[in-house]
Amino acid sequence: MKEQLIRFMRIINLVQSRPGILAKELAQRCETTERTIYRDLEALSAMNIPISNMGHGKGYSFISNFSMYPLDWTEQEALAFSLLPSMLEPVSSLIPAGFDSAYEKVMGTHNREKKQRTDIVQHVADIIQLGTPAYREEGQSFLFDIIQAALSGQTIHTVYYSQYRDAETERLIDPYYLVPRDYRFYVIGFCHKAQDIRTFRISRFKQVEVLDRTFDKGDFNLKQYMKNTWSIERGNESIRFKVLFRGDAVRYVKEEEMFLKPRMTQRKDGSLLFEVTVNHDRELLNWLSQYGPDAEIIEPKHYRDVMRERLERWKRVYET
């Protein structure tokens, strides 16, 4: 079994370095028979290593873009492989010469790749400058830890401040995606406390610890999850807005980078009819407010009343 493991690694390296290598040469280089090589190739195929016979006389090659370099191990795979020497210790006298050096080369490659990935993530995290809530002193950014956890599929243990409840809670979160919205970063992932997908603002994390436990996104679809969400706040409604933009607002609206795809119709008088469906109203209404009288809600009519009441409240504030 131990000889077969070493032979598997040898076959993979040979096929990768010499695409088109024949079974006869594989047998010679591995110091075994062609019959054994055929059995090994069948076993590798069962392990989802995509080595394929390219045709008579054309030898064996990897199909698709499969490669053993980089190793691209998960933390769980790396841990399992690192335990191999201790598991083989009872039969160390039966292990052929060369195993130790081969093992060290593989682990060395993994450690080098891990450091390179860490350096890249740290560099990205350093470039991204996050703001600090006005009520807090400038503190530690957990962006690096969260990016690292999301890339390696690891759960994080956090202390999170909830603005809605004005309270801090401990949570285990599987960080699926990082999403930038309105000069902020949010984590979308599975919250073990709520047993559901939740959205967390990074600046509200008070502590973050990356755990050894891993997670799987399953069939989670970010686009479906964020469907009809104007920015980050999600709802359960389906509200079709029609807004008429006039004046300079038309040019600015056309240049807006939006997360939804609105329908925009240019009119002969220079105005712009803007139509979009959202699942929550607050963020869209706040966005419209910046354009003042140059943005008029046409439908739903109920929101004309909502906007009118908002303007009357503002007026009363400044009248007093």
From TrEMBL:
<dbReference type="Pfam" id="PF13280">
    <property type="entry name" value="WYL"/>
</dbReference>
<dbReference type="InterPro" id="IPR026881">
    <property type="entry name" value="WYL_dom"/>
</dbReference>
<dbReference type="InterPro" id="IPR036390">
    <property type="entry name" value="WH_DNA-bd_sf"/>
</dbReference>
<dbReference type="InterPro" id="IPR036388">
    <property type="entry name" value="WH-like_DNA-bd_sf"/>
</dbReference>
<protein>
    <submittedName>
        <fullName>Transcriptional regulator</fullName>
    </submittedName>
</protein>
<feature type="domain" description="WYL">
    <location>
        <begin position="145"/>
        <end position="210"/>
    </location>
</feature>
<dbReference type="InterPro" id="IPR057727">
    <property type="entry name" value="WCX_dom"/>
</dbReference>
<dbReference type="Pfam" id="PF08279">
    <property type="entry name" value="HTH_11"/>
</dbReference>
<dbReference type="InterPro" id="IPR051534">
    <property type="entry name" value="CBASS_pafABC_assoc_protein"/>
</dbReference>
<dbReference type="InterPro" id="IPR013196">
    <property type="entry name" value="HTH_11"/>
</dbReference>
<feature type="domain" description="WCX">
    <location>
        <begin position="238"/>
        <end position="314"/>
    </location>
</feature>
<dbReference type="Pfam" id="PF25583">
    <property type="entry name" value="WCX"/>
</dbReference>
<feature type="domain" description="Helix-turn-helix type 11">
    <location>
        <begin position="11"/>
        <end position="52"/>
    </location>
</feature>
<dbReference type="InterPro" id="IPR028349">
    <property type="entry name" value="PafC-like"/>
</dbReference>
